[in-house]
Amino acid sequence: MENQMQATGEFVDADGMTWYRIENHDLLDPFLVSLVTPDDQWAFISSGGALTAGRRSAEYSLFPYETDDRLHRSGGRTGPLTLIRLEGRSDVWQPFDLDTPIGHTHRSLAKTAFGDRLRFAEHHPDLGMTFEYTWATAGRFGLVRSCRLSLDHDRDPVEVTILDGLVDVLPAGVELASQQASSTLVDAYRRTELDDAGDPDGEAAGDLALFTLEALVSDKADPAEALTANVVWGYDLRESTTGSTMLLSERQVRRFRSGLDVSAERLRTGVKGAYLKVATAQLAAGEDLRWTLVADVDLDHQAVVELAGFLHHRSDQTTAISGAVEAELEQAHRSIGELVGDADGRQVTADKRSTVHHFANVLFNCMRGGVFPDDHRVVVDQLARFVSARDHRRHERLMELIAGLDPVVDIDTVRRAVASDDDIGRLVDEYLPLTFSRRHGDPSRPWNSFRIPEPMPDGRMAIGYQGNWRDIFQN
Questions:
Q1: H helices of 370-394, where?
Q2: What are the phi and psi torsion angles at 48 (to 5°)?
Q3: Coil/strand/helix, residue 261
Q4: Are 363 and 429 in contact (CB under 8 A)?
Q5: Buried b (16+ CB within 10 A) or exposed e, 344-379
Q6: Cβ burial, residue 52 (10 Å; 0-12/13-18/19+)
Q7: Are 122 and 96 in contact (CB under 8 A)?
Q8: 285 φ/ψ angles, rounded to the nearest 5 degrees
Q9: Rounded to 5 degrees, what angle do the CA atoms 267, 78, 302 make?
Q10: Helices marked H in 284-316 — which ranges?
């Protein structure tokens, strides 16, 4: 049987998108996959399931920022964890378990041609069940994990009890050095709790969990308040689940594996945080269960209150929340297409492999060198801030020269307006309004640090570049 099994790849169409899917990817050596985002989010995912993700830089991580060799060994210990128990069976199915015997299940891994979504799938022939989940980013909401458990069409109805969620979720405020060298000290400062603020019934808002530090990790005799939180929350797309129980640590995972009951947790301190939901549901032949987890990093008090209010006050909670998340997912996907399209990266030929390769090549070149957001047009206020920051003595004169210009104009219009002042003209000529640029660096090259600028207050992409001059002019 082993000689008949091999990893194969093909293009498939699903959910209105083109994907490249690798069947039996678990027969290959583990490899690292990056998730492309149009904003300040980032994610690096091992083909074994573990991942690290966050915003802006490794200092703002949702999961520990480890080198890729450690990520490849961390499946089931960092990131997603799923256990499925069928009524009447003593064994527990753990999809994507690194120790599952070869041939016992069938696995695949698929990534969109845009590089913005990654889907893991595993089919268990004996149980007649398939479990899959997809990673994507949803702008203001953060990182999204969409899950689906389905029963084959030729199977009898079953009752399933599912434990699913995220483990080893970092609290906000943990510096990279502490993540990698003082993780046991970080554990001592951890606080994980369900948020029930503003709910008269004392129920958590959309099962919103807060991952925080009791205080910043420091040995200095200075105040070190931890004023931000990492958050995880979720929702179900089907209301037939019963017996839902929230766990905030891995302490009771072994009890679940043993078929024993678990107790709800609303607060855990001093241990690694987790977000695990246990629920029971009936599945008929050909039916599926769907649920979604959403996670974000570094939310301040106001952002947490606003998120809790959003989750509490939906008139039709599941429909309204899922609709808002889906809208952000689609906007992120569309933004990547527009960015690459502006760089002539969207071409159509009879050779799909060449078309997708060209898109990917242009996409990653854009991320290295950046793109111009509006051809040769510039936002006058942004250009003025650039010039004034480099020579504040010229600010008053600059404002006189550009007074009366439209908010957004062609760069040559600005050049003509300041032509009477050589110094200001020189600074205007130096203005390089690039966006979507990010310095290269990932867990396979940890010596290269990266930082992605966060969006501007009005929601537009930040202007600036992280690539070096070779990247900019070469790409």
A1: 380-390
A2: -85, -5
A3: coil
A4: no
A5: ebeeeeeeeeebbebbbebbbbbbbbbbbbeeeebb
A6: buried
A7: yes
A8: -55, 130
A9: 50
A10: 301-312
| Helical (H) or strand (E) element with 424 | helix 422-430
Bridge partners, residue 135, by sequence? 118, 145
pLDDT at 241: 61
Rounded-to-integer distance, Cα 215 and Cα 227, Å: 9
Tokens 């799923």, located at residue: 82
Q: Is the pLDDT of residue 1 over 50?
A: no
DSSP E strand boundaries for 138-265: 143-151, 158-169, 190-194, 209-213, 229-236, 242-247
- The burial class, CB within 10 Å (0-12 / 13-18 / 19+), for 305 is middle
User: What are the tokens at 363?
Assistant: 């996409």
More confident residue, 466 or 91: 91
Nearest-angstrom CA–CA distance, 174 and 109 = 31
With a CB cutoff of 8 Å and minimum separation 6, the contacts of 18 are 11, 12, 112, 113, 352, 356
Contact status, residue 296 vs residue 231, Cβ threshold 8 Å: yes
- pLDDT tens across 253-268, in order? 999 999 999 999 999 9
Alpha-carbon span 183 to 189, nearest angstrom: 10
Query: DSSP labels for 364-407?
Result: HHHHHH-B-TTTTEEEHHHHHHHHHHH-GGGHHHHHHHHTT--S
Global pTM value: 0.92
Q: CA 127 to CA 149: how far, in whole Å?
A: 12
